[in-house]
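Second attempt. The first submission of Cell wall-associated NlpC family hydrolase had a stray character pasted in from the spreadsheet, which I only caught after the job came back as garbage. Lesson logged: always re-copy from the clean sequence file. Corrected sequence (213 aa) follows.
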Amino acid sequence: MIKKIAAVMLSVCMSTAMAAGAQAADFTSGEETLEGTFTDGSKDDQTGDISEIANDIVAQAEEKAQEYQKLKEEADRAAAKKAAEERARKAEEERVAHRQEIVDFAMQFEGNPYVYGGTSLTNGADCSGFMMSVFKEFGYELPRVAAAQYESSQKKELSDIEVGDLVFYGSNIYHVGLYIGDEKIIHASTSASGIKVSDYDFETPSGVGTYLK
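This time the job returned cleanly.
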């Protein structure tokens, strides 16, 4: 396209030079020569060609600019979607890791004694005291007894249970354990067995609640 424009411009310059030479050679016939220049319409045609080429260049430039803008918008949308997906992935990883961290913390007290009314992770706790003390280490304030812990928790279906959820037992909620995965809980069971791991359905669960995301 640039070569074509250059060729046209060169042609215009040569035509202009030839016309000027003719006028210098015969000044008296200048009017006639000038009229002859326009009679065949060569100048007008050349100007029209240049204008048409220029218009084509502008049109192509605008088309390319629109195509670029469209591609840029598509790329921006794809980048935003990818960034959102990455944030969601990281958030989910952090959520799951936090739940696992609580379970790992609770597991280190397996084998410690059960003490009715106790809240000590090392010297002895009952079921709700054990849950209250474990969660307190992570900034959660749970009520003191199992029934109250269930009432203030976010209720879940048993089919949706996750690591870190609480499993409650009894029609009047008298016992609670921490779900650790693989259909098991850790809980302060009895004075005979202390804090131990059991199958989550060692007794029929009456509800599932959580304090975690």
